[in-house]
Amino acid sequence: MKVLSLHTSSDRGFPRPRVESFKLIAGYGIEGDRKAGKREQRAVLLLGKATYDHLESLGFDLPYGALGENMVLDLDPHTLEPGTKLRVGEALLEVALYCTPCKTLKDRYGPDFPQKLGRRRGMLARVLEGGIIRVGDGVTWV
């Protein structure tokens, strides 16, 4: 399993710009990200490629980052229970909670988009151990 895409921004809005790497800080989040330091259990939004595959099957042609995620993985994070720990690159993450679709997605992609997306918005994680994460880094259960 690996990291397919990384996204972060100091500004509001979607899609979030793609980056090749970023630094995670324990108990804080992504260095330079506008959401960093606000709520520890919501530090990083993990999304699986399967979410984009699902949306494509419904006629949506969206680039990675379009849903506000920080990481796109080649695994489905929705299959992970809260408390699951993942080693991603140099960092250690703990899956914390399900991310509900926000009003921005509804405004941008249509009033029925949240229903079409279903429970595939992603999982929020906290940073237990910081480090650098790069596109292509491995993802393992701890």
Automatic annotation (TrEMBL):
Residue ranges of domain MOSC in the record: 17-142
InterPro entries: MoCF_Sase_C (IPR005302), MOSC_domain (IPR052716), Pyrv_Knase-like_insert_dom_sf (IPR011037)
GO molecular function: catalytic activity; molybdenum ion binding; pyridoxal phosphate binding
Gene3D superfamilies assigned to the protein according to its UniProt record, in alphabetical order: PK beta-barrel domain-like
Superkingdom of this protein's organism: Bacteria
Name of this chain's protein: MOSC domain containing protein
Record organism: Allomeiothermus silvanus (strain ATCC 700542 / DSM 9946 / NBRC 106475 / NCIMB 13440 / VI-R2) (Thermus silvanus)
